[in-house]
């Protein structure tokens, strides 16, 4: 094997009086998470160097806060906090990568030798020549526990990736396994590593494999010994061409390779699976620390003289990269952070860390000990739960450890299923896929959809594809002509009414697209499409009157058959057959929770580090709805610090990057931002109106819910809420009318028909009829008239023939609250209250005449509307009959009724000038 040489550059110069007697120093090196910075330190230099990895020729940033040499470094998993330990007996924290000094988080009486963060960064372990390992809460700086058990200086610390154990090693070669929940020693391995003596430049270290299954420790035979995480038994060794004991080892990010350095000044690269070395390098001085680059194929090294370098292309190109297939426990989570479910006791601290989940939305898989049977030899530990209240350690109801080897138990053959079950729970999350789709085969036709009804096939040509739709039973479906595909659709779904297609994102200009094509429709141009900016369609589905798509942002988007976005979904607990109100807190992939609280209307809300604001509402079956995305509004150098929100605005303070929170002085200015649903880019081109429509619907539901809650208390007056509900309904109707106008102008008549069914007020229905009549759409006007007639018919059937219908005085929402025996066609659009496809209209009236013979409580009576349709020249006139003995209250003027001397006037209750909802207000 060819031995190469690597040129190193000087990072730290020894100072007089620093370092070991032989002139050697222990130096540290590490990467940040994004591989943009490299941090080095030396026990002979009081400074910490932060190197720009992208511009290595630039002068590094030097942090000089220690009074003596730096002996240990640790960087939090999210690379925002740097910890350093020194010969001056202190442990300091800095902001990273800025390097601003934060605090002296703890102090010892003797020098520090080892530091380590846990997987969430909420806990820092520190140890050295003192007796004891300190577990420090990084949030408030408190000491959670001091672990005592070593007889020599502790030189190495490592938290396991699953957050259950801490491994430590001392200068005498003894390894201890600590259980974090109880703080007890699980296993003691005496003298398994070389003794380092009094040479402070030589330290014993250890390291967990990235999947947490094994602990690597330098062996006594110039080798590496792997120990099982649960039993501490030797699994295997890596033995090669090291001539002297090892002084450092480092796992590759994916756990497939390992780098080891020895006193023989060699660095060997190992294929762990094959247990053999695949490359090596010889150096002038001993390499005392190494770090794999988080991305790419590079190993950073530093020697005892303070010189560092980068070993490029460590792994041969013919082998898998060291950063490919990183274990799931180290990857970013899928965006779902778990709250406590039923059957778990609440955490005492309220910390998400008590649930076994870390604070940034990432979680490790459960360990094998959770599925083992409880042994009859188990004893309760009096030290159990002594860390309660700190919110640092996982609060898991794990059984006590049996006093026999798990390997012996498995070898008996009685519990073979336990091993397979343990491995299965650590498997990767199932990727989204489209059922019935076959992979691409060059030059061959493939399936985009294959279901019980028929098939959708495609074949790629130069620049386009040819799509065909066929039914298994030709009598069940129409003959669908072939389609030329210029989008590159990769998935589809088929039913009796139509087909839906979607394609992935292909660069910034070619966004992911969802397209629906009905087989037949009463309206022309009933096909529609949606484009998704910043997200990608993963799965599509098609049902009766609805289209659904799941995207890469974990959104379930639902559209009506006409293309109306409703953002509606339901979640069921299959085990209990219920839908609990508590459960999972959704976060954007790779983000963590920044703000959590209630809106002014009492909606539980959350804001994550990706700038997505969500609110929890019971309107959609108990779901979190995204109401705001900062990425669409903020500038690149801005961060939003959330203060609160109401029904339409987000209250925040704008901070200039890299600051993420405001300063007390100067006094920060509160900024109001409009809430906006992350809607898909509709082919209608009315995104603002669609957003207003959904926000109004959400606001109206909350008002009506408060009315229902107040109605149970007779002492509470709901007049103010009733007026607010009526105003919101009127605003929603105006918004819907504008949407109808946009649909008519874009020739989306099916969508316009769906919208008109959502109108609440009678005057709005009449305004819609006049609108489409003015646009010369007689076919659509007839449909609107039919919907109005159906509503009148439903009202007639639901009301007594000789008496009016009593409605609560002042209630703007009571119009939709009456049950009806007439059911409309199914639709996935649900208004904020119980509505029909043709809801009833009630107009409040007051009987100013004699009330004798009526009820003592003076009920209001409502006028029954009886339409009499007379067509003349394409126009429609509605006449109404008023119930005897009643007089209509003066109400809000009809903004859609134009004043005319020829038209009927007996319905008009006030002579206010009409308002035009489509006319923009003059500035």
TrEMBL record:
Its main location: nucleus. The keyword Repeat applies. WD repeats lie at residues 63-104, 147-188, 239-280. It is found in: Nucleus. Keywords: Nucleus, Repeat, WD repeat. Residues 431-566 form the WDHD1/CFT4 second beta-propeller domain. Residues 28-309 form the WDHD1 first WD40 domain. Residues 690-792 form the WDHD1/CFT4 helical bundle domain. InterPro entries: WD40/YVTN_repeat-like_dom_sf, WD40_repeat_CS, WD40_repeat_dom_sf, WD40_rpt, WD40_WDHD1_1st, WDHD1/CFT4_beta-prop_2nd, WDHD1/CFT4_hel. Residues 848-857 have a biased composition (Basic and acidic residues). The keyword Nucleus applies. GO terms for cellular component: nuclear replication fork. GO terms for molecular function: chromatin binding. Coiled coil: none annotated. One of its GO terms (biological process) is DNA repair. Residues 808-832, 872-913 have a biased composition (Polar residues). This is Minichromosome loss protein Mcl1 middle region domain-containing protein. The lineage of its organism: Eukaryota, Viridiplantae, Streptophyta, Embryophyta, Tracheophyta.
């Amino acid at each position: 094997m060819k031995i190469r040489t690597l040129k190193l550059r000087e990072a730290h110069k020894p100072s007089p009086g620093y370092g070991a007697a032989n002139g050697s120093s222990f130096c540290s090196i590490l990467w940040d998470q994004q591989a943009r910075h490299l941090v080095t330190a030396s026990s002979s230099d009081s400074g910490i160097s932060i190197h720009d990895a992208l511009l290595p020729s630039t002068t590094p940033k030097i942090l000089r806060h220690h009074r003596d040499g730096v002996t240990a470094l640790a960087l939090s998993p999210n690379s925002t906090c740097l910890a350093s330990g020194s010969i001056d007996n202190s442990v300091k924290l800095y902001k990273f990568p800025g390097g601003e000094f934060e605090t002296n988080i703890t102090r010892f009486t003797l020098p520090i030798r080892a530091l380590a963060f846990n997987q969430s960064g909420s806990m820092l372990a520190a140890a050295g020549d003192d007796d004891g390992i300190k577990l420090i809460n990084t949030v408030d700086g408190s000491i959670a526990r001091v672990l005592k058990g070593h007889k020599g200086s502790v030189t190495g610390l490592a938290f396991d990736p699953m957050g259950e154990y801490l491994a430590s090693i001392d200068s005498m070669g003894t390894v201890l396994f600590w259980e974090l929940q109880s703080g007890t020693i699980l296993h003691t391995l005496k003298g398994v590593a070389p003794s380092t003596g009094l040479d402070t430049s030589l330290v014993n270290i250890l390291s967990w494999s990235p999947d947490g299954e094994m602990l690597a420790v330098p062996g006594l035979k110039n080798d590496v010994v792997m120990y099982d995480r649960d039993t501490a038994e030797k699994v295997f060794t890596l033995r090669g061409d090291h001539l002297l004991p090892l002084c450092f080892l480092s796992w590759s990010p994916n756990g497939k390779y390992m780098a080891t350095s020895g006193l023989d000044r060699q660095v060997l690269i190992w294929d762990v699976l094959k247990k053999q070395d695949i490359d090596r390098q010889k150096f002038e001085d001993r390499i005392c620390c190494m770090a794999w680059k988080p991305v790419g194929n590079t190993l950073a090294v530093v020697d005892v003289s303070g010189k560092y370098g980068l070993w490029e292309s460590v792994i041969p190109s013919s082998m898998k990269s060291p950063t490919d297939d990183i274990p799931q426990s180290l990857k970013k989570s899928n965006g779902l952070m778990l709250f406590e479910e039923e059957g778990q006791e609440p955490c005492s601290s309220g910390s998400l860390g008590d649930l076994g989940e870390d604070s940034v939305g990432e979680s490790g898989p459960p360990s094998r000990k959770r599925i083992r049977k409880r042994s009859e030899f188990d004893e309760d530990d009096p030290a159990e739960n002594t860390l309660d209240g700190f919110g640092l350690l996982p609060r898991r109801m794990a059984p006590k450890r049996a006093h026999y080897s798990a390997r012996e138990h498995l070898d008996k053959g009685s519990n073979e299923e336990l091993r397979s079950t343990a491995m299965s729970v650590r498997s990767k999350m199932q990727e989204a896929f489209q059922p019935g789709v076959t992979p691409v085969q060059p030059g061959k036709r493939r399936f985009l959809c294959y279901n019980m009804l028929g098939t959708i096939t495609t074949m790629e040509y130069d620049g386009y594809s040819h799509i065909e739709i066929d039914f298994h039973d030709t009598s069940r479906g129409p003959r669908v002509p072939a389609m030329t595909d210029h989008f590159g659709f990769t998935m589809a779904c088929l039913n009796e009414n139509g087909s839906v297609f979607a394609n992935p994102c292909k660069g910034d200009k070619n966004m992911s697209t969802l397209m629906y094509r009905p087989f037949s429709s009463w309206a022309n141009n009933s096909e529609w499409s949606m484009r998704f900016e910043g997200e990608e369609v993963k799965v599509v589905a098609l049902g009766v009157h609805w289209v659904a798509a799941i995207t890469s942002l974990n959104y379930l988007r639902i559209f009506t058959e006409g293309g109306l976005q409703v953002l509606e979904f339901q979640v069921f607990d299959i085990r209990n057959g219920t839908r609990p109100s508590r459960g999972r807190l959704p976060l954007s992939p790779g983000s963590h929770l920044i703000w959590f609280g209630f809106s002014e209307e009492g909606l539980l809300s959350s804001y994550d580090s990706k700038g997505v604001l969500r609110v929890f509402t019971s309107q959609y079956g108990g779901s979190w709805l995204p109401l705001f995305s900062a990425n669409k509004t903020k500038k690149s150098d801005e961060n939003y610090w959330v203060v609160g929100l109401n029904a339409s605005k987000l209250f925040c303070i704008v901070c200039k990057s890299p600051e993420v929170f405001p300063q007390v002085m100067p006094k920060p200015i509160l900024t109001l931002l409009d809430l906006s649903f992350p809607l898909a880019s509709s082919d209608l081109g009315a995104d603002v109106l669609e957003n207003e429509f959904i926000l109004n619907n959400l606001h109206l539901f909350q008002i009506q819910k408060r009315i229902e809650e107040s109605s149970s208390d007779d002492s509470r007056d709901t007049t103010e809420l009733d007026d607010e509900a009526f105003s919101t309904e009127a605003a929603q109707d105006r918004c819907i009318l504008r949407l109808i106008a946009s649909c008519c102008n874009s020739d989306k008549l099916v969508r316009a028909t769906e919208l008109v069914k959502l109108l609440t007020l009678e005057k709005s229905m009449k305004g819609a009829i006049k609108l489409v009549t003015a646009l010369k759409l007689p076919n659509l006007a007839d449909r609107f008239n039919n919907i109005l007639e159906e509503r009148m018919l439903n009202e007639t059937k639901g009301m007594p023939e000789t008496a009016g219908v009593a409605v609560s005085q002042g209630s703007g929402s009571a119009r939709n609250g009456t049950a009806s025996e007439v059911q409309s066609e199914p639709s996935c659009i649900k208004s904020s209250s119980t509505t029909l496809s043709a809801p009833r209209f009630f107009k409040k009236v007051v009987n100013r005449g004699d009330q004798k013979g009526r009820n003592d409580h003076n009920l209001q009576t409502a006028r029954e509307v009886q339409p009499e349709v007379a067509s003349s020249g394409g126009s429609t006139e509605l006449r109404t009959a008023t119930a005897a003995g009643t007089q209509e209250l003066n109400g809000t003027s009809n903004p859609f009724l134009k004043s005319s001397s020829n038209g009927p006037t007996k319905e008009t209750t006030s002579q206010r000038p009409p308002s035009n909802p489509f006319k923009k207000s003059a500035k």
